[in-house]
Amino acid sequence: MMTLEEKQQDVIEEFSLFEDWMEKYEHLIELGKDLPLIDPEKKTEDRLIQGCQSQVWLESGISDGKMQFTADSDAIITKGIISLLIRVLNQESPESVAKADLHFIREIGLHDHLSPTRSNGLLSMIKRMKMEALRQI
Amino acid sequence: MLETEVKGKRKLELEEIRRDFPLLGREVHGRPLVYFDNGATTQKPKRVIDTIERYYSLENANIHRGVHYLSQQATTAYEEARKKVANFIGAASDREIIFTKGTTDSINLVAFSFGESLKEGDEILISHLEHHSNIVPWQMLCERKGCVLKVIPMNDRGELIQEEFEKLLSTRTKLLALSHVSNSLGIVNPVREMIRKARDYGARVLIDGAQSVQHTTIDVVDLDCDFYVFSGHKIYGPTGVGVLYGKESVLDAMTPYQGGGDMIKTVRFEKTTYNELPFKFEAGTPNIVGGIGLGAALDYLSEFDMHEIEAHEASVSAYLGACLKEIDGVRIYGESEQKLGVQSFLVEGIHPFDLGTILDQQGVAVRTGHHCTQPIMDFYQIPGTVRASFAMYNKKEEVDVFMNALERAVKMLK
């Protein structure tokens, strides 16, 4: 089992292989396509995180003391970034999720996507993931 | 290039005028910038930038109240700018030009001040094509006053259905608030005819010119609208300044909605009297440099023939439209012949946010999303569109760069 920090390092290493933006985005798009989808009937208002540009649905639960997240988005690049967040935060204790410093996003050059002006719902999604974790503590 | 030449006007030599706009020379993500987000805001010519710098370096003072040299000079410059605006849109007098923060602020001013005279059951007519800023202030007015908001429907091509418009008009219609050009589809509404029909029922008419004043010749007297509103920053001027044109008689009958300095004649605790037009609607120290900067932008634009600018922008837009139709799965939203400044589209199976992100990585700036027109997106049942919008400095070569970037994005995302 990797720690949260090891998982972040793993993502950073994976992205360091890409020479240019295009390969990076192609990889994100692939990750987005592989992300398990949320069933349409579960795409309800309470799971929806509204962004101005793209929308995100998030479902969370806890099993054996570890957080379980499933998410989806209508935009594929947003989905790719979501899949990275889930890879890092899934199977972590609520405490580690709540206090996680997700520095990998900055280090792989995707921090622009987390600025509030992007309005793609990602920033709100991270907040929501941490809130869900806090509720479990 | 166009052959028509108007005497005394500068020809639209693109490479030359592009050098007037310093920002156009920059790179984004290591690529030469292609700026197709002019509907959101235009870039500024050096003349505007220099005017702002000179104002703060040499001329800054508060206006309308100082006896000293700088204050008088600043007042003159600000009032000159007002005259330039009046001239530019063909207003009868500069008393009819109110400086505001922008289009939204102008509409809110009318919604509050003109709206004060409305009564329960009075109707306000807007259209399905409006920007949120020409919807929400009227909804708020309806809540305050018990008025009724009616909406002119659109058809699949993005045009307003004129027969429905005529059915919605009645003597209860007190105001028609209508965009000249749709910001998200580029559709040009037949405002002249619609104004005339609204007049037959005694309704006042507000024209939202945020997406028309920079693209075509505007003559408010000829249009015969009661109000015409636009933003400075979409017509090569600074942000934070806009214009409300109002017919003098209509503005005279309206009470101000913001009180403060500059808008008063006399202030007594018992009773205050208001200043005359246009000052009674300009409470507090205005955006002085904004007004002067807007004046400089209009001076710049006036060097050219507006008809030539309109024809040039139309040819760039039509060229992009034709290129887009060559691509599999593209749907252009807003298919009317009457379009200005905008091509809005989607590629089947691709989210606009994804397209916009990959275009941005290639140095191409477009707007994606609902463009503050959610009712239009709901009509088409889409999350948004990709919108390319043009200005006088855009060129067909940029459309070629855009198309290459788009084809690459589509390949990645399909």
Describe the structure.
The complex is a heterodimer of chains A (137) and B (414). Helix content of chain A is 48%, strand content 13%. Chain A is of the alpha+beta class. Chain A has a single domain, classed as Alpha-Beta Complex (Sufe protein. Chain: A), CATH 3.90.1010. In chain A, strand 1 (48-49) and strand 2 form a beta hairpin. The longest helix of chain A has 15 residues, at 122-136. Chain A is globular, with a radius of gyration of 14 Å. Chain B is an alpha/beta fold and 414 residues long. Chain B has two domains: 14-32 and 305-409, Aspartate Aminotransferase, domain 1, CATH 3.90.1150; 49-302, Type I PLP-dependent aspartate aminotransferase-like (Major domain) (Aspartate Aminotransferase, domain 2). Chain B contains 14 helices and 17 strands. Chain B has helices spanning 14-18, 46-59, 69-89, 103-113, 136-145, 162-168, 191-200, 220-223, 248-252, 288-302, 306-325, 352-361, 374-380, 396-413, and strands at 27-28, 31-32, 34-35, 97-100, 123-127, 148-152, 173-179, 204-208, 227-231, 242-246, 264-267, 272-274, 330-333, 342-347, 364-365, 367-369, 385-389. In chain B, the strands form five sheets. A seven-stranded mixed β-sheet of chain B has the order 4-10-9-8-7-5-6, with helices on both faces. In chain B, strand 13 and strand 14 (342-347) form a beta hairpin. In chain B, helix 3 (69-89) packs across helix 10 (288-302) and helix 11 runs parallel beside helix 14. The longest helix of chain B is centred in the N-terminal third of the chain and has 21 residues, at 69-89. The mean pLDDT of chain B is 96. The interface between A and B is medium-sized, with 16 and 17 residues.
